[in-house]
Design brief:
The protein is an alpha+beta fold and 377 residues long. It is built from 11 helices and 17 strands.
Length: 377
């Protein structure tokens, strides 16, 4: 069972599943707008999952799913109740995808509305939006005596994240390092001594941070003491570390101040990326290598030609897209329809492209999608 931010490979795997009894559940603990991490209110989250599962199973009965397949789904959903990893997660929302021979679950730090769906494929829309909207990220505050990792959610909430693999006495362990009993490596001497120790310290911190954020790809904003800032950047291997961090010693900043300054950096970063992309989009469109027409983008995505896709965070238009990339817009949602921009986004991810959910006003031409292409469709 995966309790983590889904990768492009996860989206590909989920998107390829096809079964009339595909169940998608998004559940959380607490009331909307005031949801604690799942681990702090396990019983409420379990009740929410049981209730959602019951409703989904009842819907499976109405569509006449084979009893053996229906029972297999029921057993999979029941097994989640005893999954310790699931209920100890710091996530605020759990996304569950179950079919007769397939079950996956993901813990999301974002607070998503409760939602359930039954159909021929999994409903990946909420998951796509939660993980590709560019207004969430992490702030790492680091001094020699203190390390704090703060998660900034796109829903305007924040959470201090534990670093379980960071030694409690990390600052002390850098002074004398054990070497399997042969000898102890003491603090480096000479003019380069402090720099060597700082890099060593930052390497240990970075390993603990990576254990938590993994390959999420979310922006990481650094707030470090002036002597540690270059040392951490030298040790860093996380591709999401932003070039510009918080220009202040974190020891003087409260969590609220870290969040405020972190969100300002995120906003500036997002605006800069969007402005640069829109300029590139305009140039490429003039050469036939970009479009904001949904039909053109769907065709290019199916052919594996989309380099970067931006899509409307709030788009709800449903229909279908065939294997050739031809789309059909539905007048009303039904059991065989699905979110069109969601399907386009999944096809882009499947082909190795980049996907970002944005607000409608950030898109050119007031269209639900905009994409740049690797080649002419």
């Amino acid at each position: 069972m995966s309790i983590d931010i889904p990768s492009s490979e996860d989206f590909t795997e989920l998107s390829q599943q096809r079964n009339a009894g595909s169940v998608s559940l998004y559940v959380a603990s607490g009331a909307a707008g005031d949801r604690p991490p799942i681990a702090r209110d396990t019983e409420a989250a379990r009740l929410a999952l049981r209730s959602a599962a019951t409703e989904a199973l009842a819907e499976l009965d109405t569509i006449g799913l084979d009893k053996a397949e229906r029972d297999a789904i029921s057993e999979s959903l029941d097994s989640l109740d005893g999954d310790r990893n699931l209920w100890s997660t710091p996530a605020r929302t759990i996304a569950v995808f179950a079919s007769p021979k397939f079950t996956r679950a993901f813990g999301l730090r974002n607070e998503l509305p409760s939602h359930s769906a039954v159909g021929g494929r999994f409903d990946l829309g909420p998951l796509l939006r939660a993980t590709t909207f560019g207004h969430s990220g992490y702030v790492l505050a680091i001094t020699e005596g203190d390390v704090r990792l703060l998660f900034l959610s796109s829903d305007a909430s924040s959470e201090l994240i534990e670093l379980p693999t960071l030694p409690d006495d990390v600052a002390l362990t850098l002074e004398t390092t054990e070497t399997d009993g042969r000898f102890d490596r003491r603090r480096a001497d000479g003019a380069l001594g402090p720099k060597i120790e700082q890099r060593r310290y930052c390497s240990v911190v970075q390993e603990a941070v990576l254990d938590v954020i993994g390959k999420s790809g979310l922006p990481l904003i650094l707030s470090a003491a002036s002597d540690l800032e270059p040392a951490y950047r030298e040790a860093n291997s996380y591709r999401g570390l932003l070039e510009h961090g918080i220009d202040a010693n974190p020891s003087s900043l409260s969590l609220a101040e870290l969040e405020k300054r972190g969100r300002a950096v995120l906003e500036q970063h997002s605006e800069g990326e969007l402005a640069s992309w829109r300029e590139s989009f305009g140039t490429k469109r003039a050469n036939g290598l970009a479009s904001s027409q949904l039909s053109d983008v769907a065709h290019a995505a199916t052919a594996g030609l989309v380099d970067t896709l931006l899509f409307d965070l709030a788009s709800t238009e449903e229909g279908s897209i065939d294997e050739g990339g031809v789309l059909t817009i539905a007048h009303e949602p039904g059991p065989t329809t699905y979110g069109l921009v969601d399907e386009v986004a999944v096809r882009v991810l499947r082909a190795g492209g980049t996907v970002k959910a944005v607000r409608r006003e950030d898109l050119p031409d007031d269209k639900p999608v905009a994409a740049t292409f690797r080649g002419k469709p």
